[in-house]
Amino acid sequence: MKTTIKILQLPHQTKKDGTCPILFRLTQGRKSKYIATGYSVKPNQFKEGLENWVSKHPDALLINAAIESKRSAMMENIIRADIENNDIDMNNLMGKKPGFNHTVLGLVTQLMQSYEDRKQVAAFNRIKTNIDYLKAAWGKDIMLNELNKQWVEKYAGYRFKLGNSASTVKKNLSDIAVALNRADYNGRNYFADFAKTIKPVPVQREKLTIEELKMMESVHLEGLADVARDMFLFSFYCHGMRYESVATFDIKTIRGNSIIYRMNKGQKIREIEVHPKLKAIINKYKHNKSLYLFPVVKKKHDEWTKKE
User: Fold this and answer.
1) pLDDT at 170 over 70
2) In a 3-state reduction of DSSP, which class is residue 278?
3) In this predicted model, which residue has the larger pLDDT, 51 or 123?
4) Helix (H, G, I), strand (E, B) or coil at 261
5) What's the DSSP call for residue 242?
6) SS3 helix, strand, coil % of the chain, rounded to 5?
7) Count of CB atoms within 10 A of residue 192's CB?
8) Is residue 48 scored above 70 in pLDDT?
9) CA separation (Å) from 10 to 7, 42, 274?
10) What's residue 185's pLDDT?
11) In terms of CB atoms within 10 Å, which of 14, 106, 219, 264 comes out highest?
């Protein structure tokens, strides 16, 4: 009898803090069973579907990886039982393996390779850098059964000593925690635990005044200084478009009176109205024979090399 798995929230289970548990619903025939994933998020941070169930949450990457690991373990047991013509034990579908026969660096390397296979460039680069930091902080690789709070504190302490921000260290600890969750690791995930204890300090950004902005718009500049000023204003007029998107901006993304582009962080689609100040900059450069609107990137790059 076919067994299906669906990942969902039940609104009536919403807690006082506004979060709602994420559940596995296993359906076999007309019978259904709910199993807790161990994670709760607000309803507006969750969507039903496959992968990336959680978004707009600081630990979305970690939670999604953990849920996918558990879902995969369930599916493996369902398929195995189907092949062997055995009845499925709905109460013991997790079937987690001990997971202690791995090394920490080995698991993190596997995660890095999976990002490479899926062409997730930013995630791949973060993990690759993390591997170097782990090697430098520890001086060796360790087995999972050796992992404890002290090893993670040693890694985090090394990062802080290098001057890395709390936000960066917290993010990287969460990245490494994903590698352990993917391995059906039964032990305590000290990387995830330590990440939760770090409270990032809000970044204090100094804003330009209206007067300073007007001075920037009106001052006479030439050459690359003029291009740099226009690129900054273009980003500002586009509600903070990131430098990478400005440098590789193609006028083909302008449709009608709107700029429609995919953000390189979060991959969300943004739509910006082409108001007169934006239009003036676009008209200034659109007849150039450069590869993109602004003459700073000289050749096409793929996802792996474009940050060069």
Assistant:
1) yes
2) helix
3) 123
4) strand
5) -
6) 45, 15, 40
7) 20
8) yes
9) 10, 11, 42
10) 63
11) 264
Show the CA angle centred on residue 93, arms to residues 114 and 187, nearest 5°.
60
Q: CB burial class (10 A; 0-12, 13-18, 19+) of residue 130?
A: buried
Q: What would the pLDDT profile of 117-153 be if each residue is shown by its tens digit?
A: 777 787 888 899 999 999 999 999 998 888 999 999 9
Q: Which residue has the tokens 């890095």?
A: 112
**DSSP symbols for 20-80:** EEEEEEEEETTEEEEEEEEEEE-GGGB--SSS--B-SSTTHHHHHHHHHHHHHHHHHHHHH
Q: Which two three-digit tokens encode residue 290?
A: 């450069």
Q: Is 172 exposed, middle or buried (0-12, 13-18, 19+ CB in 10 A)?
A: buried
CB 160 within 8 A of CB 169: yes
What angle in degrees, to the nearest 10, is found between the helix axes of 276-285 and 223-237? Answer: 140
58 token code pair:
């600081």
Q: Which residues are bridge partners to 32 per DSSP?
A: 27
Q: Side chain identity at 95, as an amino acid letter?
A: G
3-state DSSP of 148-191: CHHHHHHHHHHHHHCCCCHHHHHHHHHHHHHHHHHCCCCCCCHH
The CA distances from residue 63 to 52, 70, 129, 170, in Å, are 9, 11, 22, 15
Only one residue has tokens 């709910």, namely 34
- What would the two tokens of residue 269 be? 């689609």
Q: Is the pTM of this model over 0.85?
A: no
How many residues are recorded in the chain? 308
- Residues 101, 37: Cα–Cα separation, whole Å: 24
Tokens in use for 307? 């940050």
Task: Give me the amino acid identity at 233.
Answer: L
Question: DSSP secondary structure string, 88-111?
Answer: P-TTS-------TTSBHHHHHHHH
Number of Cα atoms under 13 Å in the Cβ half of residue 142: 14
93 and 77 Cβ atoms separated by less than 8 Å: yes
Q: Which helix (H) or strand (E) holds 217?
A: helix 210-218
C-alpha–C-alpha distance, residues 17 and 13, integer Å: 11
The one-letter amino acid code at 129 reads T
